[in-house]
Write a structure and sequence with these properties.
Elements (H helix, E strand, L loop, with lengths): L2 E5 L10 E8 L4 E7 L6 E7 L4 E3 L7 E6 L4 E6 L8 E8 L2 H5 L5 E2 L3 E3 L4
Antiparallel strand pairs: 1-2, 2-7, 3-4, 3-8, 4-5, 6-7, 8-9, 8-10
Length: 119
């Protein structure tokens, strides 16, 4: 069983930055961030393997950076140049298989942290 706890969501100015954190326990070979805007389907934002390989959604490439601290079983998402369309509930996820996690076919998800519309 994997447990995930996100933190870091909150008010931010348009064009500003925000860093999300996720503390995890269990199998965290692959970790990821997903987001879901109101009325929209959940989508993958960024994914990182244990050895550091990453995948990003096209909409966030060059603006967001995913990183992890393996000894602390934590994953982070640094979000720069925030836009209104980045608004949503951000979920931390973890699982043993890179592609299955990214395609939401297998994995565990946290409860989420809200990133409101930049003002």
């Amino acid at each position: 069983q994997v447990q995930l706890q996100e933190s870091g969501g909150g008010s931010v100015q348009s064009g500003g930055s925000l860093k999300l954190s996720c503390a995890a326990s269990g199998d965290t070979r692959c970790m990821a961030w997903f987001r879901q805007a109101t009325g929209e389907e959940r989508e993958g934002v960024a994914l990182i393997a244990a050895h550091g390989s990453t995948t990003y959604a096209d909409s966030v490439k060059g603006r967001f950076t995913i990183s992890r601290d393996n000894p602390k079983n934590s994953v982070f998402l640094l979000m720069n140049s925030l836009k209104p369309e980045d608004t949503g509930m951000y979920y931390c996820a973890a699982g043993p298989n890179y592609l299955k996690l990214w395609n939401e076919r297998a994995g565990y998800w946290g409860q989420g942290t809200q990133v409101p519309s930049p003002h």
